[in-house]
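[scheduler] slot 2 assigned
[scheduler] job type: sequence-to-structure, two independent chains
[scheduler] chain ordering preserved from manifest
[runner] begin chain α
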Amino acid sequence: MDSALIKAIGLKALLVGVGALLLFWTFNAIKLVISARGINPLVKKFFDQIAAGRIDGAYRLTTKAYKSHVNRQEFIKFLGSLQLNRYRNLKSGRPRIEDNQIMLTLSLKSEDKKNEMPLDFTFIKINENWQIDRIAKANT
């Protein structure tokens, strides 16, 4: 076989492979965006509730499973330990899908951007509405 023909076949195979990989990543990116629709408004509502002093409102945005592991007093204590009043900005990381859950690391940043606190959130869709299933300080 001619070496030019072998190179042409190899190049075509490489292009087909790259095209398939690109299609795979595009499909997964679109799936993630569609799946995660509604999470940003939930996050905004969660932090708005806390900022307005409506801790019970923020607590109601969590799942029954979360509430079975973290009672209201523990939730208040956890929020107090975060010292949220020190942070003014929120930066969202890249969401990850696992089964029917979406995990997302949100980084709270101080106004001067010198301090940062990452929080891991897990969201689950219940009856067409997203709810918070887990909140924890991220391991950094």
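[runner] end chain α
[runner] begin chain β
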Amino acid sequence: MIDIRRLDRDQLEPAYGLAGQRLLPWPSLNAPFEGAWCVLRAGTESTPHAHHEYEIFIALSGRAEIVIGEERRPFVAGDIVRLPPGSEHHVVNTGPADFEYYGVWWDSDMAARFVARHEAAAT
């Protein structure tokens, strides 16, 4: 069975200085990670923050800059960036169009909950 979750641009919610749609809750999905479609409006930047989870950002459309600690690099559609746990990071959109990316994050607790749900479903 094909189970498609569609992006609903009219229902994006604010978080970390951008607009986004979280992957979960999705009752039929058991995943060892969390994710969000992120839309960073032209001329804005996300809120700098750090956390304990592992994380990657996948650039989908537009151009921006990724800032990790003191390092700043171009971040464009087709790029994937790895964010080490504990690293302060944010995205800056200095361009004239929205920048869209998908963030995926995970940690050992998420993985353990995934395994427990998987094993419970198998019995």
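[runner] end chain β
[qc] chain β: Residues 3 and 77 are 26 Å apart (CA to CA).
[scheduler] slot 2 released
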